[in-house]
Amino acid sequence: MAKELKEGLFSATKKFTDAFFDGLKKNATNSAIKAAKKNKKVPPKVVQKMSQIEKASKELEKMLKDLE
């Protein structure tokens, strides 16, 4: 019983920390894209490619979750 409780607690903690760090990563990515859009020195093609990569990353993540 105690082992099951520890495993459940570990699993819940892992899910929480994964979600927390995923959120940080997404916020950092969004901030970087926003900053690149505002910065006139960054060519529009670079900003467009950054946005495409972010979109592709989200699509891949969704596909991988669907496999679970």
Beta-strand percent range: under 5%
- Average the pLDDT over all residues and give the rounded result: 87
| Strand/helix succession | HH
Q: What's the number of helices?
A: 2
Q: Report, as a whole number of angstroms, the end-to-end distance.
A: 27 Å
Low-confidence stretches: none
**Radius of gyration from CA coordinates:** 18 Å
Judged by helices, strands and strand pairing, the structural class is: mainly alpha
Overall structural domain count: 1
Major β-sheet annotation: none
Instruction: Give the helix level as a range of percent.
Output: over 70%
- Globular, elongated, flat, extended or rod-shaped: what is the shape? elongated
Count of β-strands: 0
Descriptive key words:
single chain; 68 residues; 0% strand
Polypeptide structure, described:
The mean pLDDT is 87. α1 (2-38) packs antiparallel against α2. This protein is mainly α and 68 residues long. The longest helix is centred in the first third of the chain and has 37 residues, at 2-38. The radius of gyration is 18 Å and the shape is elongated. It contains two helices and no strands. It has one domain (2-67). Helices cover 90% and strands 0% of the residues.
Produce a short descriptive summary.
This protein has 68 residues and is mostly helical. The protein has two helices and no strands. The chain has helices spanning 2-38, 44-67.
